[in-house]
Write a structure and sequence with these properties.
six-stranded mixed beta sheet, 6 strands, alpha+beta, about 130 residues
Length: about 130
């Protein structure tokens, strides 16, 4: 990992920690969000760490497992890191579903926090 650019190391490290915590104990995700963050989840936007955590904790599954199939990270002109993640998830006994997620990370108080996030399931209806 040391031979990758710093922004890729930051983004990949955040992604690994985020999904590890999401899959084992969602409550711990609060430490990864900026207080005044934004999240759009399946078209619904919430603002603030408390509302983001309320949304994540209200999701109706008991167990979940994420598999990351691809991730890309870019530096931004204002010293942030933008990360795009593609993968699959399995919640409870549901079928495996694809998803995309985007994070904007900012170094605040010597810690990389999520300031903006967007999530969508990859659902296709060809009917």
């Amino acid at each position: 990992m040391g031979d990758k650019p710093l922004w890729e190391q930051i983004g990949a490290g955040f992604v690994q920690l985020y999904y590890q915590q999401f899959d084992t104990d969602r409550v711990k995700l609060a430490d990864l969000y900026y207080d005044d963050c934004f999240m759009t989840f399946e078209g619904t936007t919430v603002r603030g760490k408390n509302d983001v955590m309320a949304k994540l904790n209200s999701l109706p599954f008991r167990s979940i497992q994420h598999i990351i199939t691809a991730q890309d990270h870019h530096p931004t002109p204002d010293n942030c890191v933008m990360s795009m993640v593609m993968g699959q998830l399995k919640a409870d006994q549901d079928q495996v579903m694809g998803f995309q997620q985007v994070f904007l990370l900012k170094n605040i108080g010597n810690k990389w926090l999520c300031t903006n996030e967007m999530f969508r399931l990859s659902l296709h209806n060809f009917a």
